[in-house]
Amino acid sequence: MNSRVSLLSVVVVAALSCLVLLPSLGARYLWQDEAACAILARRLTETGKPRGWDGKNLVTMDILAPGEERALVQNAGDAEAAVRYFTKRGDFKSDTTWIGQPWGQFVVAGGAMALLGEGAWQGRLPFALLAVLTVVLLFCHLKRIHGDPVVPWVAAGLLLTNVFWILHARQCRYYALSSLLLLVTVMAYGRWREREKAGAALFVITALLFFHSDFGTFVPVLAVLGVHALVSGKGRRKEAAIVLGILGALVLPGALYYELAGRLKPAFATLAEKLLVTTGNVDRFQIPLLVLLVVVFALRRLKGPFRTEVALALVIVPVTVLWTAVVTPYFFYRYVVSLTPLSAMLGAVAVAGMLPRGLAGRARGALALGCTAFLALSPALSAPVQALLPTSARAREVGLLLRSELASLAHELRGDLPDPNREVVEFLRKRLIEGDEVLVDYEDLPVVFHTQARVRGGMGCFRVLERTPPRFAVIRRSVGFVVKEAFAAAMKPYVFTEHVLQAPDIPWGNNPDPRFHYTVLESAGELRVFERKVE
Hints:
The protein is mostly helical. The chain has helices at 2-21, 32-47, 69-74, 79-89, 104-116, 120-145, 150-160, 163-169, 175-193, 199-211, 215-231, 237-257, 271-285, 289-298, 304-327, 340-354, 361-377, 383-388, 405-414, 420-429, 444-451, 484-491, and strands at residues 437-440, 454-457, 472-474, 496-504, 526-532.
């Protein structure tokens, strides 16, 4: 009977995960970041390497360093010169093999699209399924390692109501893969330290896969686990050094290939700004810092390997926040979103720790459900920390009693948000003929992926000033982070007809970041596509 109940509970968690993570995956076309992953995945399956340049269209890092405009304009009329420039900048290797991110996400997306065909839902589906697996695995792990039946349910509930983790996990990008592998690596570390069979080998394998999926988060997480392995466990330091040495030897070739020593990019915010905003985002959208304080006190009631795991998670979260603030160019939430499953576990520990010891049965379950709902639906516990932050560091999503981002989740699952990329792509598909070129100032890669047309532009100004005139141009007035002068110069010699689309003029489509995810679109103007008049 117990095994049937246990299996039923897993089925219920899996079904709830599917309901939250799988609907409407193809309702909106891939946006810039997703399209970059999908294009590189396509090229990986075609050539064996994710190449930034295929002789037709170019993928570069979406970054514009201060003072770089002049160099971009100088190379904007020569494709070969531009490719050499971006190679030197470190976007890819001399053969244009991509090294901006590890290849794990390209393997996942490429494999899915090879089996299912190319499109938005095909690119997103494998990552959404990995997110489902993450929820189920977290639930099963906590049922195995913790005797309190409340903890796994609360953790799964917090993860399945975390709006910005769900939005990221449904993307055709590495976020769900990183979340899963971070969780599995921590779990495998626990098995190794508890001397379970093949624990050390499992830890090395999962950590290596983690590195090849998200080397940015890998560093702080493995630093915490490595230090713990070396300082804990009497008589096991030699063993720890051997295991970590093997892992390091396996990681080293990848670190050299990805040229990690030269990966640091110019910062677009100060260290203080990045640290404050990232801390504020974790507090508001992942786990309130006040809840972390409760977990610290709850540690005294925990025993065995679970106590160690919770303590490690308590260290991993702030160390990763600090690391990302130091090494990343900006305070994008994606740099820390993979911590969400660990944060959900910590939230569950806090809820269980706040329940009265004498309470049992349905009353305990009902109180745990109420606490979970409060954490999931209300940002009230984040108010103290948010109030201490400067205005520039506070989360943009508002709502005093009810999380305003819940509306974004509802729209996401219904698939009813405006989609400028779909409108642009469908407009072009009806009109493109062989040899046409499309000039796009930003969101150029969705056009590349969904139409496979010859596209010029983007933040890298690729081929913008070539003499061959573009047939179409998509110029977003809302985009202020490209070299506008170059695009204006490219269009100036020609006469264009203006087409107004039934889509908002916003910089990007399905951006999942809390600071850039559009929940209100009424103030946006109409998006326009320009068609060159041919005599």
